[in-house]
Each structure stands twice: as C-alpha cells, then as structure tokens.
Amino acid sequence: MAEKVKEKDFVKVDYTGKLPDGTVFDTTEEKAARDSNIFSEKMNYSPAVVCIGEKQILPGLDEQFEGKEVGKEYNVTLPPEKAFGKRDIKKMKIVPSSTFREHKINPQPGLQIDIDGQMGTVATVSGGRIIVNFNHPLAGKEITYTFKINEKITDTKDKLVSFLHFTLRIPEDKIEAEVKEDKATITLPIDFPLQITTMLAHKLVELTGLKDVLFQKKGAEKK
C-alpha cells in the first residue's frame, strides 16, 4: 500500500503551475521552465522541501498535499480565493506623479514598483494621476497545479536544515545541525536576536518531536 503524507510531514515535491490558457508561471522543474520559455539562470530548479501545513508555499496548494500518496501525480485547480486572491478595487490607488519624480522614475504602464514595501504595477498614466494596481499580478485568476510528492523526509537533521533554510534564507551548506538523542544544536553563520532563535527553537521542537533545540553562532561556545 502506498505511503500517504500528513500535516507536519517534511516532503520533497515537484510542481508546475499553469493559467487557464495553459501558460506556465511557476515550476520546480528545469525542463518545464525551458519548454515554457520562463527559464532563469538565477533559479534553482529542484524539488521543493516543504513542511506540510506550514504554508511555506502557496497556502491553497499546501492544503492539497495532506493525505496524498508518495510517488503519485495529482492535478488540482485552485479558485482565486485559494490562489492569489480576488481582484480588489481598493488596491487600485492613485499615486502622485511627484512620488515618481522624487525617486527619478518614469512611470509607464506595466512598470512594477515598490512603494512603502508594497509591490504594485502601474496601470495608467494620465497627467499628474498615476494609477497603481497593488493586486497580485495573478489576482482573480483560477490556476491549476500538477504536483508529485517524491519522498517523505525522515532524517531529523535534514528537517532542521531545510526549515531554517526556508525561514532565514540562509544557504543550506551554511547551516550546521548536530542531533544527539532528543536534542539538537544549530550553528548559524549569523547571530540572530534571542527572541528570534527562541521562537524558532519552539517551532522546531513542535515540528520534529525533539525535546530541545539550541542555537549558537559559528565559532561560539554552546549556550
């Protein structure tokens, strides 16, 4: 009988996302990216390591993983509210042209900009009135994903490293994890505030079943 996965399982999964017209906009597979002309040298095309239920990828897709069989391919269609949200007219905002002049930007329809930490796309330009759309570019669209869970990760060290890689955006080869019985010591190349490492330690204990997780900066004594 095929193995099924559940919430809090760590898995390696390949997936490809498509729009209703078949256009590929997201994939973990290099061949699919090249065939769809969206290949980027900056991307690392390999199976994504995901902890089910932690919303490390699109939440609507994450929900689909629970209860699925390892090695079996699935197709799911996500409505806008489970994908990138419905289009919200309130997210269409008028931005004064002076804001663009201050940053020496020439606003043109289709230009993507960051205003106060919000990503938006210039919709129209008319005199001193520039309308910027702060909806996600795929908001309001139904999307389809094809995915396959390749394997379930059982090694505790691999779970620790993969979760911290995703959460802290630190390369996996820069994260050291030592596991002895029911305790783990994590060595990071950056010294994070105690509040952050304490929060991460609690989360890792919850996800891995360890009794204790300690953090230390590289070259420091264990604390």
Features:
223 residues; alpha+beta; Chitinase A, domain 3; Thrombin, subunit H; Alpha-Beta Plaits; 3 domains; five-stranded antiparallel β-sheet; four-stranded antiparallel β-sheet; 5 helices; 21% helix; 33% strand; globular
Characterise this structure:
This protein has 223 residues and is α+β, with helices and mostly antiparallel strands. The chain has three domains: 102 residues, Chitinase A, domain 3 (Roll); 45 residues, Thrombin, subunit H, CATH 2.40.10; 69 residues, Alpha-Beta Plaits, CATH 3.30.70.2210. 21% of the residues lie in helices and 33% in strands. The protein contains five helices and twelve strands. The strands form three sheets. Strands 1, 2, 3, 4 and 9 form a five-stranded antiparallel β-sheet that branches. A four-stranded antiparallel β-sheet has the order 5-8-7-6. A three-stranded mixed β-sheet has the order 10-11-12, covered by helices on one side. Strand 10 and strand 11 form a beta hairpin. The radius of gyration is 21 Å and the shape is globular. It starts with 9 loop residues before the first strand and ends in a 6-residue tail after the last strand. The mean pLDDT is 93.
